[in-house]
Design goal:
This protein is mainly alpha-helical. Helices cover 72% and strands 0% of the residues. It has 14 helices and no strands. It has helices spanning 2-14, 23-33, 36-48, 53-72, 79-99, 103-120, 122-142, 148-160, 171-184, 193-206, 210-226, 230-233, 259-276, 282-298. The radius of gyration is 20 Å and the shape is globular.
């Protein structure tokens, strides 16, 4: 039934019978099919006939999302093309926000700014870090979006940046943000293999033993209860139930395994998710192979 509904939707759009912008169609092209060119073509057509600022804004931030993702595939040595693409993604997100502020608009603006910083080098990345964090904090705090992709961005920021006094990097906060990312992710339309691998790598690098995890989780619980601002509260999400915190992919609590044991468990779970899906997309297979390689290295 779902495949039939999707087919009818595609036919309606292709024949010009579907006049209004349909965000679900764009999201399906982007996430389920990863047909970015078709998505961009559809969004371009819809923008010319959009009614009202809210609809235009919804189209524009999706264009930003698609342009950014297409630019990710450009060769890393082609710096000019990458900067042009990410600059366009930033412009589209800013235009979307100017028409109508949304959590998604700020999320993709933050992502575009971060990509530009990465292309321009470490010092530029450091200068972009605080603006990026500020936009993501708007997503999670001002809009109360609890957006998985934005928790992922925060997890990367806190993991990749140096700590004080140079910047605000913090490995423990990064892991908590990644745990929240996993607990809010869309498991129906997306495999989320990137999320599993990122958390597994961060845990492996931190390398806490089970007894230390138990003690630190109890400390985190106190701060988790005390904080009310989402981005501050989620810095301690790892210890939301203290030492009794249990990830959804585990049969034991975090106090009953080490960081590296959990890293291996995450890889096993991710590989099982991949194996359970028929007709995986090429990008999923590529990420699966990365997970297998990492798992073989750590075991």
């Amino acid at each position: 039934m779902k495949k039939l509904a999707t087919l009818l939707l595609c036919l309606a759009i292709a024949s010009g019978l579907w006049a209004a912008f349909n965000p679900e169609y764009s999201d399906y092209q982007f996430y389920n099919l990863q047909d970015y060119e078709a998505d961009m073509e559809y969004l371009d057509e819809c923008l010319s006939s959009a009614s009202g600022n809210e609809e235009k804004a919804a189209i524009l931030w999706r264009q930003s999302r698609t342009v950014l993702t297409m630019t990710d595939s450009v060769d890393e040595d082609d710096k000019d093309t990458r900067l042009e693409g990410y600059g366009e993604a930033q412009r589209l997100a800013e235009e979307s926000i100017a028409l109508h502020e949304t959590a998604d608009g700020y999320h993709w603006l933050s992502s575009a700014i971060g990509r530009i910083g990465q292309v321009n080098g470490p010092l530029n990345s450091l200068s972009k870090a605080k603006p990026m964090r500020g936009y993501i904090e708007k997503v999670q705090n001002d809009f109360n979006a609890d957006m998985s992709d934005s928790w992922y961005v925060l997890g990367l920021l806190y993991n990749q940046l140096p700590g004080a006094p140079l910047s605000f990097g913090n490995d423990d906060y990064a892991i908590s943000y990644m745990r929240r990312c996993l607990d809010t992710q869309d498991n129906v339309n997306r495999m989320n293999l990137t999320n599993y691998l990122e958390l597994a790598q961060q845990l492996y690098d931190r390398n806490w033993k089970a007894d230390k995890r138990a003690k630190e989780a109890d400390k985190m619980l106190k701060n988790y209860i005390r904080q009310t601002v989402p981005t501050e509260k989620m810095k301690y999400y790892e210890g939301r139930d203290g030492r009794d915190t249990k990830p959804f992919y585990s049969t034991v609590t975090i106090s009953q395994m080490s960081d590296r044991q959990e890293a291996a468990m995450l890889c096993q779970y991710a590989m099982a998710v991949y194996s359970s899906r028929s007709n995986p997309l090429p990008s999923d297979t590529e990420k699966y192979n990365e997970i297998v390689e990492f798992y073989n290295e750590i075991t």
